[in-house]
Design brief:
Distance between the termini: 49 Å
CATH class of the largest domain: Alpha Beta
Number of strands: 18
Strand content: 25-35%
Number of domains: 2
CATH topology of the largest domain: Rossmann fold
Structural class: alpha+beta
Shape: elongated
CATH architecture of the largest domain: 3-Layer(aba) Sandwich
Largest sheet: 6 strands, antiparallel
CATH superfamily of the largest domain: Probable inorganic polyphosphate/atp-NAD kinase, domain 1
Number of helices: 6
Oligomer: single chain
């Protein structure tokens, strides 16, 4: 893949004081080597409204997100193009935000000389019979009961063949990228982001034989309810929608997202992040 020389760089910042300091260092690092475009909220915080623009309208070579994974997920929902994203991790674990703040300036300096792009699959979610455009799921689409303690009764189909019929608190439909998010917490497998797959993970199923399933991402997955209780559809923890008893949910391959490629070893990084989070949890329990 050929290297891209950036001329215009977008920047989005969560807005915490520490985030603003990192952002200012990044702007200083860019200097006059490229034009910097800020999202409207960030431009307001920096008192640079003339550089502000809606994320959906940004025509940039790549976009830097300073914050946590939530900042990246929200930004991806607004982006209307194939703009690559680079995440600076100001959150906790940061699976999508690959760059630590202490390394941000050195990595950006390198990227200014040229960068490559990494493709990540997303899922398309729709309610059959409706035209509402819902955001693509970078991590997962979750169908979950609105009332804790009240299970949902549903069937899952893969290309019109019934895969499972069960009672459960809900179900997670995840991408390989999202396999380390909600899906992992619900007992799902960790899947390499380079695998073209979708992961189906029941949440607290009332059935011993119910297990997570990995299917080809090019299949059509659908969810049909029986004796519907109140439920919600949640995409990436950012988008919420109530579900009616007649609704049938359809999951297919969506438009991909793109990230600035940082050369590292995915599973070594994953192991380190999980180890760090485990150590934090142990300290909280002591």
């Amino acid at each position: 893949m050929s290297s891209i020389q950036p001329k215009r760089i977008g920047m989005v910042c969560r807005g915490e004081p520490g985030d603003i300091l990192v952002l200012k260092r990044l702007i200083e690092c860019v200097g006059d080597r490229a034009e910097v475009i800020l999202d409207e909220k960030t431009a307001y915080n920096l008192k640079k409204q003339e550089q502000g623009m809606k994320i959906a309208e940004m025509a940039v070579d790549f976009l830097i997100c300073v914050g946590g994974d939530g900042t990246i997920l929200r930004t991806l929902h607004y982006l209307k193009s194939t703009t690559p994203v680079l995440g600076i991790n100001m959150g906790t674990i940061g699976f999508l935000a690959q760059v630590q703040p202490e390394d941000a300036v050195s990595i950006l300096t390198r990227i200014l000389d040229g960068f490559e792009v990494e493709r990540r699959e997303r899922l398309s979610v729709e309610i059959k019979g409706e035209r509402e455009r819902m955001p693509f799921a970078m991590n997962e689409a979750v169908v979950i009961t609105s009332k804790p303690g009240k299970m949902l009764h549903f069937a899952i189909f893969v290309d019109d063949d019934e895969l499972e019929r069960l009672r459960a608190d809900g179900v997670v439909f995840a991408t390989p990228t999202g396999s380390t998010a909600y899906a992992m917490s619900a007992g799902g497998p960790i899947v390499d982001p380079k695998v073209d797959a979708a992961i189906i993970v029941p949440i607290a199923p009332f059935k011993l034989s119910a297990r997570p399933t990995v299917v080809d991402i090019n299949t059509e997955i659908s969810l049909e309810f029986f004796g519907m209780k109140e439920a919600e559809l949640v995409i990436d923890g950012q988008f919420y929608r109530g579900i009616g008893k007649e609704d049938m949910i359809c999951i297919t391959r969506g438009e991909p997202a793109f990230f600035v490629k940082i050369r590292d070893k995915h599973f070594l990084k994953l192991h380190d992040k999980l180890r760090i989070e485990n150590e934090r949890e142990m300290k909280r329990l002591i």
